[in-house]
Amino acid sequence: MTNNHNNTNGRVHGKVALVTGGAKGIGRASARLLAAQGAHVLISDLDVAAGEALAAEIGPAATFIRHDASSESDWRDVMVHLREHHGRLDILLNNAGILLHANIEDATLQDWHKVMRVNADSVFIGCREGIALMKQTGGSIINLSSIAALAGRDDYVAYSASKGAVAALSRSVAALCRRRKYRIRCNTLHPDGVLTDMTRGSFPQGLDPTRMTIDSDPMNRMCLPEDVAASVLFLASDESRAINGVELRIDSGQMIMSI
C-alpha cells in the first residue's frame, strides 16, 4: 500500500503528525490513515525494522525515528528532529504501550514500575514536550487509554492503573491548554479490545482471536486497529476543533451492557 502524500483534499492536509509506537497495531493503522489523508507522519518506535518498513511502504509522507517513549532524552531527540525538519507539530498520538497480565495479588512492584514507565510516564513526557512545540500554532494531542481505565479489570492491575493515569493526565492537559489559550486540544481514546499482535498473545492457545471480533458477531467486543485509527483521524482533524478533554470509548457498546 502506498499513500498519496500530495492529497490536497485530505482531512489533515499539510499537518505534521508524530505517532509513538507507530510500527505496529493501532500506531501503524493510524500512521497509514493520517498519511493517506495528507499529513506528514513521523513514526517512532523501538522496533527499527518494522518502523523503517512502514515508512518505506507509506512513501515520502512518512519518516521513521527510533524512540524509547519512556526516555526523556529520546523525546528531546524527536523534538529536535521535528523542529529541524518541519518546524512544527500539529498532531501527537501517544500510542506506545505494553500489556502485562497480573492481578493485585500476583503483580510485583517491578511489574508495576515497568508498565507505568512505558504506559504513563511516556504520555506525561510526550504531552509536556509536545505542548512546548505546539503552543505557538496549536494542535491536537490524542492519548491512547483503555476501557480498563474506566471499568474494573482484576487481571491487569498495573495496565488498568496506567491507563487511568493517562485519562486523568489528559484532562489536566486539556484544561491547562484551554486556560492558557494555546489552541491545543487533548483527548483520550478508550478501546476495549483491539486485534493487534500485542493482544493476540493474551488469547489461550488454539483460540482463533478473529472469531472474537465484531466482524464475526456484533455481541463480541474486539475491533480492528483501523477502527481506532478512524477515531484518531477525527480527533486529529479540524472537524473536532470543539472537542477537548473527552474520553471516547471504542468498545462496541460493552460499557452500556448490564448483562
Shape: globular
Q: How much of the sequence is in beta strands?
A: 15-25%
Q: CATH fold name, please?
A: Rossmann fold
Domain unit count: 1
Low-confidence stretches: 1-5
Q: What is the fold's blueprint, element by element?
A:
Blueprint: E1 16-20, H1 25-36, E2 40-45, H2 48-58, E3 62-66, H3 72-85, E4 91-94, H4 109-134, E5 139-144, H5 157-179, E6 184-191, E7 193-194, H6 197-200, E8 222-223, H7 225-236, E9 247-250
Parallel strand pairs: 1-2, 1-4, 2-3, 4-5, 5-6, 6-9, 7-8
Domain Ketoreductase: 15-198
InterPro entries: KR_dom, NAD(P)-bd_dom_sf, Sc_DH/Rdtase_CS, SDR_DHRS6-like, SDR_fam
Protein name: 3(Or 17)beta-hydroxysteroid dehydrogenase
What does this structure look like?
It is a single chain. The protein is an alpha/beta fold and 259 residues long. It has one domain: NAD(P)-binding Rossmann-like Domain (Rossmann fold, 3-Layer(aba) Sandwich), CATH 3.40.50. It has seven helices and nine strands. The chain has helices at 25-36, 48-58, 72-85, 109-134, 157-179, 197-200, 225-236; strands spanning 16-20, 40-45, 62-66, 91-94, 139-144, 184-191, 193-194, 222-223, 247-250. The strands form two sheets. It has a seven-stranded parallel beta sheet with strand order 3-2-1-4-5-6-9, sandwiched between helices. Helix 5 links the parallel strand 5 and strand 6 (184-191). Helix 3 runs parallel beside helix 4. It is globular. Residues 1-5 have low confidence and may be disordered. InterPro entries: KR_dom, NAD(P)-bd_dom_sf, Sc_DH/Rdtase_CS, SDR_DHRS6-like, SDR_fam. Belongs to the short-chain dehydrogenases/reductases (SDR) family. Residues 15-198 form the Ketoreductase domain.
